[in-house]
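Question (not urgent): is this output format expected?
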Amino acid sequence: MTTSDAAAPTTPDSAREAAAAPLVDAVFDIDALLSAEERAWQLKARAFARERILPTIEQDFEDKYFRRELVAEMGAAGFLGMHLTGYGCSGAGAVSYGLVCLELEAADSGWRTFVSVQGSLAMSAIYKYGSKEQKQRWLPGMAAGELIGCFALTEPSGGSDPAGMLTTAQRDGDGWVIDGSKRWIGLASIADVAVVWAKTDEGVRGFLVPTETVGFTATPIDTKLSMRASIQCDVLLEGVRVPGDAMLPDARGLSGPFGCLNEARFGIVWGAMGAARSCLDAAIGRATSRTVFGKPIGAMQLIQAKLADMFVEYEKGVLLALHLGRLKERGTLTPAQISVGKLNSVREAIKIAGEARGILGGDGITSEFPVMRHLANLESVRTYEGTDEIHQLVLGRALTGLNAFA
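Got this back:
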């Protein structure tokens, strides 16, 4: 795939690149497995994360503040819907997209989540299932960061069983009336358009609902102890009337939303390893700078053993993500394979963050280091787009041919 001229990444000079390199790169040389374009996308995202997100993220997390001005900057950088082609999107490959997710989540899970909700969920739904008119209306503005989308699937009664959704869409003349509620909907209170999934007489269908529509209400969830620098909402749909052409014509049944969820899960496979890398880097830095009993704690055998185990799991996770990316680019990636990646990446990232917290000692619970913020965020990442248990059942079904969901 080629990258559009407007969003084409440029490679920074070697001095700047070396100065910005994570500590783990000294041992884990993944660069040799990447193309020049993939590496350029990674470095572009790394520079953006370090220059535009990291300087304020600890305070933003504390203040529960979503820095909306970064949205247009992300659009200008080509990160929004970057795996899509046309309509102002970058047309980048799967591995390039994964590397961008890794670098953004190394700064904060909330910003990788934003890219996922905007690009992998809302934009992908329109791109995969929308009419030509729907694509032309929404995608260019969303790619530029001028418009924001959300993806309204999960409901208060349970996110793991979308087949049991209670939201309905009833025909009303030439249009539809939607009633129901959704929960944990990212970006809903600032979105311009919501992709709403609802039960109809024809099965589950998707609708594009401008958020200014009468009866659509999005309320940010204010009690979060995780993902505090991003936005998740309760959504209420009360007699929301949309025209007939609001329906996504090519999405029928749950295969529609699931097709988008798999796009988002792919980004998580990479992104969680970014959070893990940030925690591992913090632990290495602390281990080589903190002195006890007359020597750096990194000279202690137990600390070195912990760092080695953390590093091995990080390396395995990135290599798995890269393998899945290559499969995706060949068009052979399966949902079960994505479940392997999502389950492994998040589970191991949480373990790495926990070990890093211990190595940092008491200081590990402060905002002087990113570890507790990552650890809290990763608990959300573990839950959304399929819990550990859901992905275990997906893999169990693939291994045995037996369905244990019901």
